[in-house]
């Protein structure tokens, strides 16, 4: 297993711009405090300073995570094979395609190798560009080849520096979103500081660099910033068109770089749908955003050779259903409260029925089953019946797909982020409920417009969108820990916005009968500055200690295995083993695999379940036949899986295989009544005894403390 060890010795406060206010700042005698020109110059100065702070914080974040990565692994000093092993599990698989493109004789040959790939899955030729989201690796490899930097920068550094550079884009986008919402860049500064001090819960880029979400989330943050700006009132037509273009580009790049894009954008579409139903967003802008989502996803679908999983996505079905239902119900937003509620219920049912029908029809036509494991997992996770499905249980037993641990909230509270977030969320939710009720209960158009005008003072469309966004993604994070990074980063934005919001403090002070304009402005700046000082005082020493801690990559067993494979097996050899290890085998040695961690394909899932019988209670003849059916030459057994203790009984890989095969699990504990004792001992344990029934099919050719490699006999 990959570990790290201690490295051996030897080698001025801002006067921010305010939100536009209806009250004019005048002297008692009626003279204006500052003229138009002075105000304009001050705004330009404020925007300039705010922009410089944003860019500086983004660059500092990039340097920070890059330094942590270097300090943690001593990346600049370790061997190439160790660098590649540090890209664990699916990260190694994705990086291998970048390496493949770099090493190809030409760009055309590299692309041909990806489109007609026969090394990722043995005895099959697959289109990597269709199956996986690796266009970013393709683009980066082409860029590296055409730029005159080969003599100064190694390919691996060009790759990781690009990802660390995207962190700058991410932080700047969060900063700008908070700034747009509150009207002061002090809010953006606070959001960025919270993002950095809560790094453990806001990003994992420094140790999972090639992971798809590290490519996608910066573009998602840019998209949210653009949507926030788009939802502002009184935009000029040119501004609106430019902003829509920015939204489209960000949506397209987000969709292109992450296979789970459709699920994230479905939640976003649901947020737009809810707000539109309650008259809290302009319908025309919501429609354009639906169309942008559809067009962005379809463009990605075309680039991925019409990937059927995209065509069968719930997002496309949902957005199409909303547009169809809206066409049918033209008078949805007219009438009294009860009339509106009745229409709203009918509209929701109509959209739901259309979504299911359209999605079912598309999947039937395309014979689509690529995403069925996700729905099996969700069904089991939320208690709609137990399952013995191997794929669903594989997800259910992984900590990353479990509920968000409670200690997350204590860490977030240490920086005051979670406390402020809950406070702002509560107030904004109350306001949103009141606004929604007022919108639904308008009796005539004039009265409705008056009330809408009043409501926009307390809950503007951009704030309403970010409120529903954070609520829905919060629910996702609470249910699935891996998705917390979508929530915690936006939590920084939302909390800082609330703390610097004129409208929020105005509401609070009015409720306790202490409101004055001056008092509101003082509190709006004083409390965020005190919060920033507290964060700096408490966490700056810890950040400095973290940056000074030096460790070293240490995984000699895996290094030994990879070096042995490269030196002692032919280039055409086919290897079987765990998904996680085989991704490293492909990256480090270039050998052909039987299976890999990119799980969004039904045939691959079936193949993986079959390959994993090496850890089940099966006869040597059965295992040999299974492995040879996939062209296997060598099989790698891992003691960490065969004798696994990381998971509890019932969640160990060998237990999942026993349950799927109808066998009683090992160890003390209950078993389901219909499970039966296996006829054979566990293969991965028994093969080490060198019994004749095993040695006739398998010959051990390599072993160390962690791995055992067996060569398969080639019987006629």
Automatic annotation (TrEMBL):
KW Iron-sulfur (keyword) present: no
Compartment(s) where it occurs, according to its Swiss-Prot or TrEMBL record: Membrane
Residue segments, region Disordered: 1-29
This protein's GO CC annotations: nuclear inner membrane
GO molecular function: mannosyltransferase activity
UniProt keyword annotations, A-Z: Glycosyltransferase, Membrane, Transferase, Transmembrane, Transmembrane helix
Topology relative to the membrane: Multi-pass membrane protein
Ranges that cross the membrane: 41-66, 179-197, 217-235, 242-260, 296-324, 344-362, 416-437, 522-540
Compositional bias annotation for Basic residues: 1-10
Pfam families, alphabetized: Dpy19 (PF10034)
Family stated for the protein in its record: Belongs to the dpy-19 family.
Annotated protein name in UniProt: D19L3 mannosyltransferase
Gene from which the chain derives: Dpy19l3
């Amino acid at each position: 297993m990959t570990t790290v060890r201690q490295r051996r010795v030897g080698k001025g406060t801002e006067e921010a711009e305010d939100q536009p206010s209806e009250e004019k700042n005048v002297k008692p005698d009626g003279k204006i405090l500052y003229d138009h020109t002075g105000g304009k110059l001050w705004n330009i100065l404020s925007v300039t300073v705010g922009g410089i702070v944003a860019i500086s914080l983004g660059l500092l974040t990039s340097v920070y995570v890059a330094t942590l990565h270097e300090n943690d692994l001593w990346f600049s000093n370790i061997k190439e094979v160790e660098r590649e092993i540090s890209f664990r599990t699916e990260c190694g698989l994705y990086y291998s395609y970048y390496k493949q493109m770099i090493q190809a004789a030409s760009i055309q040959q590299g692309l041909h190798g990806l489109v007609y790939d026969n090394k990722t899955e043995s005895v099959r030729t697959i289109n990597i560009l269709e199956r996986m989201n690796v266009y970013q690796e393709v683009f980066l490899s082409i860029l590296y080849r055409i730029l005159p930097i080969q003599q100064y920068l190694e390919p691996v550094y060009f790759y990781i520096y690009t990802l660390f550079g995207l962190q700058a884009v991410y932080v700047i986008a969060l900063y700008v979103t908070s700034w747009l919402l509150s009207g002061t860049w002090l809010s953006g500064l606070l959001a960025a500081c919270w993002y950095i001090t809560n790094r453990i819960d806001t990003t994992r880029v420094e140790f999972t660099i090639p992971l798809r979400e590290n490519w996608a989330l910066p573009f998602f943050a840019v998209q949210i910033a653009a949507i926030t700006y788009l939802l502002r009132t009184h935009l000029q037509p040119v501004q609106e068109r430019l902003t829509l273009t920015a939204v489209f580009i960000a949506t397209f790049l987000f969709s292109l770089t992450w296979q789970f894009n459709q699920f994230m954008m479905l939640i976003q579409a649901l947020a737009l749908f809810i707000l539109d139903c309650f008259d809290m967003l302009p319908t025309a802008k919501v429609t354009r955003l639906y169309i942008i989502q559809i067009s962005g996803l379809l463009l990605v679908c075309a680039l991925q050779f019409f990937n059927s999983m995209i065509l069968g996505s719930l997002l496309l079905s949902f957005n199409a259903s909303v547009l169809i239902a809206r066409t049918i119900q033209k008078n949805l937003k007219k009438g009294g409260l009860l009339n509106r509620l009745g229409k709203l219920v009918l509209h929701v049912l109509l959209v739901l029925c259309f979504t299911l029908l359209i999605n079912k029809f598309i999947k039937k036509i395309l014979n689509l089953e690529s995403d069925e494991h996700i729905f099996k997992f969700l069904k089991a996770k939320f208690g709609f019946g137990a399952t013995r499905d191997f794929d669903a249980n594989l997800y259910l037993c992984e900590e990353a797909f479990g509920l968000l641990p409670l200690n997350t909230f204590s860490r977030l509270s240490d920086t005051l982020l979670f406390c402020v977030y809950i406070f702002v969320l509560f107030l904004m939710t109350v306001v949103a409920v009141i606004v929604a009720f007022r919108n639904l209960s308008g009796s005539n158009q004039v009265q409705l417009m008056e009330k809408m005008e009043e409501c926009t003072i307390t809950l503007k469309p951009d704030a309403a969108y970010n409120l529903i966004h954070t609520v829905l993604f919060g629910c996702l994070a609470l249910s699935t820990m891996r998705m917390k990074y979508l929530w915690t980063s936006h939590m920084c934005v939302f909390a800082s916005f609330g703390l610097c919001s004129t409208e929020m403090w105005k509401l609070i002070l009015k409720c306790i009968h202490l409101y004055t304009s001056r008092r509101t402005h003082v509190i709006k700046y004083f409390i965020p500055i005190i919060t920033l000082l507290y964060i700096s005082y408490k966490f700056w020493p810890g950040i400095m200690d973290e940056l000074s801690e030096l460790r070293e990559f240490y995984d000699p067993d895996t290094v030994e295995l990879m070096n042995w494979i490269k030196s002692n097996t032919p280039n055409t050899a086919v290897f079987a083993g765990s998904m996680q290890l085989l991704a490293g085998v492909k990256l480090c040695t270039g050998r052909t695999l039987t299976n890999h961690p990119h799980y969004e394909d039904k045939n691959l899932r079936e193949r993986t379940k079959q390959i994993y019988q090496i850890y089940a209670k099966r006869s040597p003849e059965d295992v040999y036949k299974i492995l040879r059916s996939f062209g296997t030459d060598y099989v790698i057994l891992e003691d960490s899986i065969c004798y696994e203790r990381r998971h509890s009984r019932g969640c160990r890989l060998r237990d999942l295989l026993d349950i799927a095969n109808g066998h009683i699990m090992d160890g003390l504990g209950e078993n389901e009544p219909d499970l039966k004792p296996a006829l054979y001992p566990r293969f991965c344990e028994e093969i080490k005894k060198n019994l004749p029934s095993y040695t006739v099919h398998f010959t051990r050719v390599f072993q160390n403390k962690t791995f055992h490699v067996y060569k398969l006999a080639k019987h006629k």
